[in-house]
Amino acid sequence: MRVTFTANGKPVEADDVWEGESLLYVLRERVGLPGSKNACEQGECGSCTVYLDGVPVCSCLVAAGQVQDREVRTVEGLSDEQGELGLVQQAFVDAGAVQCGFCTPGLLVQTDALLAKDAQPSDNDIREALSGNLCRCTGYEKIMDAVRLASARTCERATSE
Amino acid sequence: MSTRTIQGQKNLQNINQASKDGIGGSPLRPDGNLKVKGEFAYSSDLWHEDMLWGMALRSPHPRANILSVDIADALKVPGVYAVLTHEDIPGTKYYGLEIQDQPALAIDKVRYHGEAIALVAADHPETARRAVKKIKVEYEVLTPITTEEQCLDPETHGYVHEPHEFKSHGYGNICHEQKLVSGLGVTDEVRALADVIVKGSYEVGMQDQAFLGPESGLAVPAEDGGIDLYIATQWLHVDRQQMAPVLALPEEKVRLTLAGVGGAFGGREDISMQIHACLLAQHTGKPVKIVYARDESFYGHVHRHPARMTYEHGATRDGKLVFADCRIVLDGGAYASASPAVVGNAASLGHGPYVIPNVKMHAIALYSNNPSCGAMRGFGAVQAAFGYETQMDRLAAELGMDPVELRQLNAMSEGDFMPTGQQIDSPAPVAELLRRVKDMPLPPPLDTEHLDVRQLPGALSNTSHGEGIVRGVGYSVGIKNVGFSEGFDDYSTARVRLEVIGGEPVAMVHTAMAEVGQGGVTVHAQIARTELGVEQVTIHPANTEVGSAGSTSASRQTYMTGGAVKLAAEAVKQALIEKGRRRYGWTQHDLTLTGGKVVSPSTGALVSMVDLLGDEAIDLTREHHHRPTVPFDKETGQGFGHVQYTFCANRAVVDVDIELGLVKVVELTAVQDVGKALNPLSVVGQIQGGCTQALGLAVMEEIIVKDGKVRNASFTDYLIPTILDTPPIPVEILELPDPHAPYGLRGVGEAPTVSATPSIVAAIRNATGLALNRIPVRPEHLTTEAPGPK
Hints:
The structure holds two protein chains of two kinds. Chain A is of the alpha+beta class. Chain A has helices at residues 23-30, 87-94, 104-117, 123-129, 141-160; strands at residues 3-7, 10-14, 49-52, 55-58, 71-73.
């Protein structure tokens, strides 16, 4: 089947999609957006998290056909047109929250969604929001630092605007 | 921030710090921006317009004879390009890290659940999956050999490998063994010298590395008949060494380039899909990509050895250790992998960081029909630490002493001897680490007034509102070797090139080091900046065009490849200065490179590197070998076997719901001596990550194997700590330089994984009074076990 949808603001179409294919497979293997990662492919690790119509979902659990005419935003869409890092991306780099980095794209999308909802989450809020995203390298401490940093910068930006 | 760095008392040498981005600074990862943008190419992201997908058929039985394999139906599936069995292997059929006992594809029999039997290449992963299902295998299923008792009685239960096969080290179903005796050993006379004796039996479950990036790579057939493999691995050259004979190619025609690695932790030390992808590419003449699904990843790599251990310790009334009698049995599974070296570590480090006048040790690894076990962070030292640290707590209780004091009383320090007879000739601040970890402030008590259930055991499941929660505190310390041991000529190669690009001096660093997330690429740039006094450093992709870097394991890469980069950069520096001497007739002997200039400390800047270099590049390659070690004597375990030791101490605070058996680690503190922190931000990240894997082993992580079959090959059923399971991890760093290591540094990555697990279990014991002699500690242990010995 042919699937057409919007990825990071641009229309995309994928042909000859097998009905069992996931959104993750279509993004990674068919439309050239490999940023979302394939770690467990059963919705347990969060590495493939993308926005679907503004809601974070595990793209491995979304059948490709379900995204027909809908809007997808992936980690690639968190940077601006010129490739400048988004605020959450920069905070993860600055805090040393990226080691192997395989979990990072999913964590970025989930953090972005958390801060959009609540710019000043408590530590417990952060832990709850990110509890579906496994990381094997960092011990999560630097991820906590990154989210706190992103939160502080979000609030700073809101104050200065 | 809960992190602080404390400078050690001694300074080995004054480091000429080129800038804040030199060593000792914390510049950001060079690959960080790509990784947060989703543009970093991991091995599973590789793509070729003409590529096929490879997949393996795996055995559903842990032990069986293969009577026949019929691939005819699989070959008929539209879109299938090849179906291969061992008969299609052009070269040697076996490979292995230390013992070549593992067939690239099963021959006549399978020895573990998930062993690869046949391969398929197809145009879509689903096509490959369907074809794999159409391969018909006829088995004669045999009863698997799975327990220690069965393994040690081959006359009754049989052999995993027939006696004539691959027995380079052991006999029967023993893959490898190492004995050790020091002092008087452990005899009745020695036992009589002790006022107090404690005995214990301990078990450690099978832990998995559970790196997030699945095993994957892309094999591309080359026009010269060779093959190019883009691969996530820990050691490019040792992969090639094992692959080339199987592919019937000379090594120079097997070219490996490191693709992005999504974590490793030892699980990528062995071959997984490397040979399979290359065989399919050779056979089809097309690029072949293999990406393991998560269940296949659990089948396709080796795990941490599960262990059964018995320990007997004797001490005088005032707490001085008199003897230790230890037996460590590791289940190595079907193939040897790194088992011999793991045994060597368990035997030589299995008594802990303590001075014990009389030691007897026997460590063995078994062949069984369980999944193969090999390298995982902590490598043989992890299992033992759970044994000896539990013994220390029990001994302290028996003597009525504080458990930290007992440890400090017996702690080894510089100048002491290991039971292997090796004198420790660099700082070993074991007592100091314990003192510091004990002095760290404790977290506040549970605030029952303003309770947030997310902080409690059970957390979001809302299982408690504070009732039935008991807090406990536990301590531990551990020892780990750094680098490859027992006489292995461990070395690494680095090529450093200095040239002018765009009017600026630029250094290029080329090594075959596998960057698996640890941050080696950051540190290499820091070293080049520091030694060459330049700002711009380019890290060349790691591949087999340069000499071996050895493995990214054993906490050795900053020591070894970092050391090689230092040597090569120093050589480039000397060559540059020599060039200046020839041109300008300089006579000073203490010239340095700083800020892009050649500088004399007495007369200041002499010339800019840009002017001195002109159009010429200086390009030099150096190898770094660490000082030699020797193999342990087989019977006595004596020998200078390890090049460096590293130590970490931990304190765990836990809350336990004693009614439901749920544990919440409240805080896990670590104090570690790192010799010299080349990049403090990365060092702290390594320590926190290591502690978290130790937390996993303490309370949740285990591959459940029943009758040789893996029962939980998924992230649904194999649990690793989430951010909700992981507490704040305050870290304190000590920097006591090792005079034998580059910059005085000490390997960092593994020590916390060795030491942190026992502290968590000790804290749970402290809260509950239970014995808890097996890890991971599960809820049923907390609700059904009898109280432990006082």
